[in-house]
């Protein structure tokens, strides 16, 4: 199973009204086909009444094994249904890659 599919499967326990897992690895200096950088947009009633850090901790706990072994970067957009509707389904784009080790070698 791919890392993306594993993330999607594990996050189903939050019974999301909306879930999108985007592999953003291609935007970074990693080998082609890598699964190391992800953006997760998740809308769940489980986030109701929880501060942003508590929401992120909840997701991070579910993905602890992947964060320890496979995922290098994880961008989280965790919202309640009301917040999602207020934003009209939009999120902020992930920042551009600064080049990682390639940037250091070119400096």
Distance between the ends = 38 Å
Unreliable segments of 5+ consecutive residues: 102-107
Q: Which sequence of SSEs, written as H and E, runs from N to C?
A: HEEHHEHH
CATH superfamily: BolA-like
Total number of helices: 5
Structure classification: alpha+beta
Mean pLDDT: 85
- How many domains in all? 1
Helix content: 25-40%
What is the tally of beta strands? 3
CATH topology: GMP Synthetase, Chain A, domain 3
List the helices and strands and how they pair.
Elements: H1 3-11, E1 18-23, E2 37-43, H2 52-62, H3 64-69, E3 73-79, H4 81-86, H5 100-106
Would you give an account of this structure?
With 107 residues, the protein is an alpha+beta fold. The protein has a single domain (3-106), classed as GMP Synthetase, Chain A, domain 3, CATH 3.30.300.90. Helices cover 36% and strands 19% of the residues. A three-stranded mixed sheet has the order 1-2-3.
